[in-house]
Amino acid sequence: MSNATIVEPFGDGFVNALCPELILFAGLLLLILLPNLGRGTFRIPGTQLRLPWLLGGKRFKLSSDPRLPAWIATFTLGGAFLDVLYIFSQGLERVSIVSESGKELLLINGFSRIFELIFFGALALAAFSSMNRLQVNGIGSKISERELYNNRRQADFYILMVTCALGMSVVALAQDLFVLFIGLELASFSTYVLVAFLKESKVGVESGMKYFIVGSVASGVGLYGLSMLYLWAGSLQFSVLSAAFAESGTTALPLIGIGFVLVGFGFKVSAAPFHFAAPDAYAGATSPVAGVLATASKAMGMIGLIRMLLIIAAPESSDGSAVWLVCLGVMAAITMTWGNLAALGSDNPKRMLAYSSVAHAGYMLAALTAVGAWNWDAAVAGDASAAAVAVMTALIFHLVVLVAFKLGAFLVLSILESEGGASSLSSLGGLAKREPLLAVAMFIFMISLAGVPPMAGFLSKLLVIMGIVRIAVGDMGAEIADGGIYVLGDMHWVWWLALLMLINSAISVFYYLRVVVVMFFDEPEEGREGPLPRGWQVRVAILACVLTTVLVGVAGDSLIRLCEMAAQSLNYNW
Amino acid sequence: MQDWISMPLVGFPLVASIVLLAFVSNANESMRNRLSNPIRMATLIFSLVLLAITTGMFFQYFGNASWEGISFNNYEFTHRYTWIESLGIHWTVGLDALSFPMVWLTTFLLPVTIIATWNEKNGAVYFPIILGMGGALIGVFVALDLFMFYVFWELTLIPMFFLILMWGGADRKYASQKFFIYTFTASVIMLLGLITLYFFQDPVNPLEYAGSMTGRTFDIPTITQHALMENSNGNWYLGTNIQKVLFAMLMLGFLVKLPAVPFHTWLPDAHVQAPTGGSMLLAGVMLKMGAYGMFRLPISLFPHALEYFQLALMIIGMVSLVWGAIVCLGQTNLKKMVAYSSVSHMGVILIGIATMQPMGWAAALFMMFAHGIISPMLFAVCGAFKHHYHSMEIGAMRGMAKHSPWLATSMMFAWMASLGLPLLAGFVAELMMLIALWYFLAAEGWSVFWMVGPALVLAITAAYYLWSMQRTIFEGGDETQPPTSLNGQPVPDIASPEKLAMLILALFTIVFGVMPWIALDMMHDWTIQIFEGLILPILGDFNGGA
Predict the structure, then answer these.
(1) CB B193 within 8 A of CB B285
(2) Which of A302, A422, A493, B495 suits B219 as a labelling partner, its CA being 20 to 30 A distant?
(3) Chain A contacts of B161, Cβ < 8 Å?
(4) ipTM entry
(5) What are the helix (H) ranges across A174-276?
(6) Could you tell me the residue range of the domain that residue A567 belongs to?
(7) What is the pLDDT of residues B113-127, one digit of tens each?
């Protein structure tokens, strides 16, 4: 990798480098400004002269349209998404944003760009399909107070979505733990409010409160860990921390500090035992928001884990395996098993998806564990850095395609939700008769989540397992060809994580299929016989998710390469 | 050479099925009923086209593949397209004398199934699913890439799941899920075996078709070639321990699919609840995927481990054979009895493999083929029985010969074929298996005690088949007793499409019983080739394997 171009804040090249973020920023301003435009006038004191002032007053037809904020947010997030895609097609440049005092704040490379893709994609889909969720009927002058109020809330909702995207992309770019933390908090606070946004429903408020309390405790613990790391290294720069860790990382202070920070990120990825708030939050939030929590927010937490475990407490800084290897392996095993077993017993489809998202967190943690084991035995481990890149590729690929089928599943639920509460599996009953295409879409999402070919979920699971097995097997094949004698026990124990992962996906088939059976077999619930609520936006978003799931599943090569490039740019020591 | 497999045999039925399903998905009830007939005709014509292609392949009208003399690990109609280059995944298709009979069988059963279930309800959706099922099954048999093989292997679950769930019997909800979960669990273990095998390849020696990211390949011919070289150096490919473990992991997936006792419990449930068409394809082709996979992967790659596990396989085969037959005796449900008889017949295949005799392997291959023609007929009879008498119970209906002579004749014919009447296809396979077992016992010096199992089963099979025939067809004399479930309505005979399907199946049962060499020659040749190319050079003159 070539060295990064160094750019000062607001210096030359700053706008170019942070173009997607600036688009978000502009969108944010528009979201605040546009819905408030009206025929407001300003009287010059002492005269009868009224100057048009445009803010406030009776609003224009366009600016009082309740769908306006949604459109702005969709275009902003979608524009940022397309901008990142454009940047990818133009070839990436590695840009580092360094403050005057010489501190590297943000780094733009393939790794951060692909996560921006995840965040913007997920939030754009969510914003687009939320368009008809807070529907008000009145447009124009005859708008009632309550409708007006709802209209204002529309703006709030989408403002929060855009700030959430902004915070997430800061996390992706950050090269300093403190900057990362600010981004994390910006995104977290937005999601706390988004979860509790349906304040008319008791569930929404309760779950928002729960999510907020648990989340802020986790953040507090993380911040405490951060202060310990600062105490130990005197800086929160990744480069400084990483160098310090290589020198004296296995002492008590940094290990405790890192452990505390991991609690904060563990909450975000909903890894056991920090996952307890997640099912409540998903069940209480509106479905598109829950989808964002399960995809973008999880990817954000994953960045934190990757930065902490692979950059700061890097496995290459210790002989053999990383210090956190066993701890993370146990956590991965518990997380995936717990998630799946809990999902077996939940009747609420959103809770079920929440637990399945816990299980997926477990799979991703297993992949991370495998990276930690990458140079476990010099004789047989083989090309460790290539193996590490392979696992990271799998991890990133998984996070990318998760947006398609996890968010897609939530979007299908969101249609059912808008005809009144979809808190039980039976609300999906007869979906195949009511709207066959929607049922087929849900079926595709379900089997993709379960990891059945030829869907994207299968390819991502295959890649993760291949990464783990690759590290466990290493170059044993070459050694055997040279006459070496090995038995199964010579493989690294992370191989058993792959086995556990596969057994877990077999368990998970049960609850995913249950959804399919209900859709295709059961009769519709009382009061749900008629056609489903209209709304072409959410259906277009679902269609996009279905197409991505299937197309990536059957022809995923280019996306794999993109993820491989991103994985390579994560750590240039590899 | 033109690619006669990828698009014509695999892509076309899958795409046609998806297009038809998309076409009817938004149609309302009455529209669907009107569309039912054209779609049924379309799928019939499509499946006849597939049959024409494979038959043309057999008569060397398409391509000039000679199905005999293809040496081990060589394939006809081979085509390779890059699929996921970074992982070494290719779309590789090819046929040899192992897979070609299975592909022909699939294309043969498709139109027969469509004809036999001509009046299935909700046909506009049903027939495209049958067609898609056919495409997925052909994909399994033509795949020469581990990834592609696995993808199609799992893909077959989806249409079958829906066939059972949407057209099945009263307990279909339970049966479809059990079917899916059972076979999926076994195949994920197999998947881990495949991936572990993948990474045990030696990336240092330049591998053909290797992925840019991994340096290994999923290409079956390349891996087989590699394993053959390693094995014939006097070593075990990958070493003793790992070869055994991988063999066991792969075999697990195939044994569950076959199914062998004790992994067979999904089969009776799936069969009893499945609609007739689903049962016909399930028993006819899907079970054979297990035996096919055994030959294609674990046996071809790990012959040493096969020898090591020989006794275990023999025991599993014997237990399946005997247990399946004994359980049949206790069944009062006609379809369940037939399902368990399938388990018993799959035991024959396993025993044939475990003898490690060319004769035994040829018997196994021919059994796959013969059972693939006979068992659909059994299930077609069961389906017609259910359709006309609204009951599956043996004894609910007596004196069937009187008012349903067609059904009675078909039933008698199918039952006789299944119990191994000479001059019918099943007999050839069973006879060959018995001879191979004798060879094996003599060469190995094992006790003749092993013959007790098959001998016992011949008697038991005759007992349950004759008993059930006697109860349903003949008993009652002049006093026929229509089933109570009919509520006194007149008893009809089977409809003409069903008659046609029965006739076709019966005809081919006779053809392959009287002239087994049509299929047996190429199967026998394949076993000769694998023994000359793989077993003898590697295992040497073990227990007289000639």
Answers:
(1) no
(2) A493
(3) 513
(4) 0.90
(5) 177-195, 202-233, 238-248, 252-268
(6) 322-574
(7) 999 999 888 889 999
